[in-house]
């Protein structure tokens, strides 16, 4: 049986890694942390923020609402308060479509 390499998922991401993922400043991430209750990164003894996969997923939802759909911060907060499960499901669909798109682009480039 051949060796199959597994994808390694990190438990915690630093602020620097998160800012690179979303291509934003750390101040914007901290601002969204203050504005949205669903964003609760852990802090170590030094006070450095450590983001979990759940925090990353919540940030994706927030960025999708604010940047892509054009919601105001108050509108995004209200939407998340009333439609949290729907927002998570929509983000899951968006993520799977983005993975499919990258796979198809990779196949096209290999032809």
TrEMBL record:
InterPro entries: DNA-bd_dom_put_sf, MerR-type_HTH_dom, MerR_fam. It holds the Pfam family MerR_1. The keyword Translocase does not apply. PROSITE patterns: HTH_MERR_2. Residues 12-82 form the HTH merR-type domain. Keywords: DNA-binding. The keyword Ribosomal protein does not apply. Coiled coil: none annotated. PANTHER family: BLL5018 PROTEIN, REDOX-CYCLING DRUG-SENSING TRANSCRIPTIONAL ACTIVATOR SOXR. This is MerR family transcriptional regulator. It comes from Sphingobacterium tabacisoli.
